[in-house]
Each structure stands twice: as C-alpha cells, then as structure tokens.
Amino acid sequence: MFTLVFWRDAIERAIKTAAQTAVALIGTGMVGILDVDWVQVGSVTLVAAALSVLTSIGSGPVADPGTASLVRRGRYAAD
C-alpha cells in the first residue's frame, strides 16, 4: 500500500469507477443535458470514487504486495 504502483492502480480504478458512475447517472431517465442534476451526479461520482479507493486499500494485503488488485499476477494468465 505504500508503493507508487499501488497508488497508480488505485487512482486508475477510482477514475474508471467515477467515469462509469457519471455515465450511468447521466444516461438514465432520458433527460436533456440541461435537465441533469449535476450536483447530484458529482456527489454520487465522488462517493463512488472514494469507495473504489477504500476497496483498493482493503485489497492491498490480500494479493500481490504493493498492488491494489485482489487477483495475483500470473494466476490466470498462460505464463
């Protein structure tokens, strides 16, 4: 958890989660772009990103040391 690799992994996952959350919230309800509640979208997106970082922190001690993944490297790959 104290490595650059870990934090790069965690931040990448948080950005992906935030983007997916925002798209899901904007895409629901078939409303016009001006009708979107941007404060709510931003709030939910930030919470989702924070939860992603917390999940990465919780995953740190489980798999490969220094990564934010729950899966060990090479476990499922054809090495």
What report would you give on this structure?
This protein has one domain (4-59). It has two helices and no strands. By secondary structure, the protein is mainly α. The mean pLDDT is 81. Helix 1 runs antiparallel to helix 2 (38-59). The protein starts with a helix and ends in a 20-residue tail after the last helix.
Question: How is this fold's topology laid out?
Answer:
Blueprint: H1 4-27, H2 38-59
List keywords for this structure.
79 residues; mainly alpha; 0% strand
Give the topology string: H per helix, E per strand.
HH
Spans with pLDDT under 50 lasting ≥5 residues? none
Assembly category: single chain
Tell me about the largest β-sheet: none
Number of strands: 0
In short:
The protein has 79 residues and is mainly α. It contains 2 helices and no strands. The mean pLDDT is 81.
